[in-house]
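Thread: "does anyone have the structure for this chain?"

Original post by V.I.:
We have the sequence but no experimental structure in hand. Need at least a predicted one for the grant figures.
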Amino acid sequence: MKYQLMPDLTPIEYEALKADIEERGVLVPVEVDECGAILDGHHRVKAWAELRSEGVNLPDYPRMVRKGLTEEQKRNHARSLNVLRRHLSREQRDEVMRAMRRDGATYQEIANATGVSVGTAYSAASDVELFKTEKLIGADGKARPANYERRAETPAPMPSLFVPGGAVTIEPKAATEAARQIQQERTAEQRQKRIDRINTISQGNSELGDELEGQYPIIYADPPWRYEHVKTENRAIENHYPTMDLDEICALPVSDIATPDSVLFLWTTSPKLAESMQVIEAWGYTYRTCIVWDKERIGMGYYARQQHELLLIAARGSVPVPEPENRPPSVIRIRRDDEHSSKPTEFYTMIERMYPELRKLELFARSRRNGWSAWGNQA
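Reply from O.Q.:
Generated one for you, tokens below.
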């Protein structure tokens, strides 16, 4: 591999890359020269070939041909792409800069390629000797290397973008845009395939009651947590609705009514955070992240007066993440109404926007929402 000039990926990094390619294919075009030698994408091609040999049905990977590059330009181009993308140690980065200097790159070129200042490039590579030749005295009395010559500016090469089924020569800016478009289309295609598979599985019987039909990829739950420390009558949650202890909540057959690939949205409070993690595990999910609901009204609390609740997000299997434009912020500010424990309808809308295609079930529902299934003694 002539232009594999960077340190190998770690085993963990390589397995993560391989898993992503198995799921979505090769999205970033592999860059090659006119002879087919790989300039960038050695690990992608290696992982792609291994998966094909293991029987995984993958399409061919997209290629971008870089034309008109000198050997020095090919090597520096390969380095610059990887330096900006890889998480290199300082020692590894400095070695890349020294190698570029040995290939004749100026400090400005090294800085541009690696995203550092000219001063940093000089500090890393100033010890590299470019010339080991005799020196001549010029007419001005100054000594210069005998082979001294000014580096000529080389025009940017014209790339060709190759995709399975054909090739077209385009301008560099258009090549980047075309590569981005390919990635977006493939991501959308793979996402839709996974959504369709989840919807196909979303059928059968439920153990929570005859009113529920099939399985659900989206589970939304606001459990009636029991707070054992609440003693005073005016603060007893049971005055508002029946509560359940941790074992009772964990024992619910949520794992059976959710599709193998599904997302759980679970409401909790700060005092119940540890128990919520046990519920997530008992229901067969893995915690991913959370959204903070800032209620803009200060409540009660023993160590700190609470002004927020947490909507935990957990997942199991392989559910596509929401499209970027449909991802909510991590903090949502909506003033709390006066009904005990009620949640704003904006959170229903948020989930519908995140996963418009998937069936949704609300556990412990207080009312029915159009397009959702509901289970609970208040629905």
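V.I.: this helps a lot. The first helix runs from residue 11 to 24.
O.Q.: and The two ends are 64 Å apart (CA to CA).
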